[in-house]
Queue: 3 jobs
Job 1
Amino acid sequence: MFFQKSFFKAFLIILLCDSILYFNIKESEKRGHDEIKHEKLDLSENKNDLDEIFQEPLIFIGGYVSSGTSLMRSILDVHPDVKCGPEIKIPNMFAQVEKLRENEIIKNATESAGLDDTILKRALGLYSYYIFLNNVDNAKRLCSKEPFNLNYIEFFKSVFPKSKFILIVRDGREAAFSVIKRWYGEKYEFENFLKFLSEWESWYEISYPQCVRTGRDYCKIVRYENLVRNPRETIKEIAHFLDLEWTDKFLKHYEFLDKDIKVSKNEPSLYGLKNEINTKSLGNWIGNIKNYDEKKIREKIKMLEFFGYL
């Protein structure tokens, strides 16, 4: 019984990826997405159209929560060629599929049916692409901003080989403090602080090696501190990396909310997006963590030293 239910669930996920893509890309074409080079899509007639999708130069932004990913995407959203849009939590679905695939019975059954890892990856890639496409208005380059993107750099690179990645890194102490403030109010106990710092470290222990293996031509590490202290210089480097022409709008993203920048009603960083780029978010954790233990931080959170924050 377990096998039947689990296999059926896995089958439905794969079928969903395929059917949603087929029927809804057709619908998106009717709504005008032909302006962004998708006019040739006809999945029932030409498999080459799928290959064209896989060759698109997508942009992925990732980083730990409260590390500046929302700021980064709002900056890029003002460029006429790029649209990221708000978070849509696609990587959360990937985790569920990965969990299913860990079951040997399901894995053997799907592979026996010819559904190997390559096919599943491409199906998930197409599913993601369709969601990206419908999360924004017409754009020459689609962009995805999700904190969890940082854990799937190599996955997306294998499916979309021309894609590029921006990995946002912020001092883990700043990020942990911001998360606690956002979700827990004024409860700045050290143990809670250390818990989120450990999570911050675990995320970058996964993502940093992926970024390095992907290569500097495709994955760029952006320090949040550099972005807010030297925005013009840092954004110029990012624009060059992404092959985007400079626009002064990059420095005035706050003027384009609900215009060029699509904002979700549940946008967690909306307050920050409404303001010009500034350094007010730096150093807020200092002196505000009850029973702060620097020695324990140095012993347990090695990535702080690795990134030069200690």
Job 2
Amino acid sequence: MFYNVQSGIYMVPDEFESFNDILGLARYKGIEVIGNIYQNSDLLEETQ
């Protein structure tokens, strides 16, 4: 899957199945994710 995390598109490995894992990946990539991911869906959008 590919996710757009605050203007950056990243391929998420299959083992990253939860939003928490994706947030962890975003932090690992140096992206500051602000707010509740469940309430701010614009921060994380699945892309084709």
Job 3
Amino acid sequence: MLQIFQLPASHGIERILLFLLLAVCILCAILVILLCQQKSPPLLRGRRNVFDCIKDTESCQNTSCSHVCLTETCVQAAATLLKNMDPIVSPCEDFYQFACGKWAQHHELPSDRSYYDTFSLMKDELKAKLRETVRRASCEEDSNATISAKNLYVSCMNESEYS
């Protein structure tokens, strides 16, 4: 005799759980899409130029604007960028001139170099800070690496032993 094996019919609870799982997955997908769209839009969207946007941030000083950084470092960086920009030039015509047009007015080319750019300036500032750091006397807050660097610097600069 031929017996046919039949799978048991799905129970009602299994169908309900499957439906709930599917509904939760769909809700999660919708939430992910909504959260991606909620990200803050670019600062310049809908603006005529960057200076309009900067004027708008002045109102943030009296209110809480979580999307604008107003720390000392951010303000100094923004001031440096603005100082080097040439707002007369259209960024669509010549973006480099717009972004860096006044840089040469504020930075003189050193006589010992054939070029001088922002990276050269940052390199010079970093060298000066490092030199100042290793020249300072060691203190308890210094890490072992800093103390070793200071000792190496002192030993290399101790010219009185060699004369």
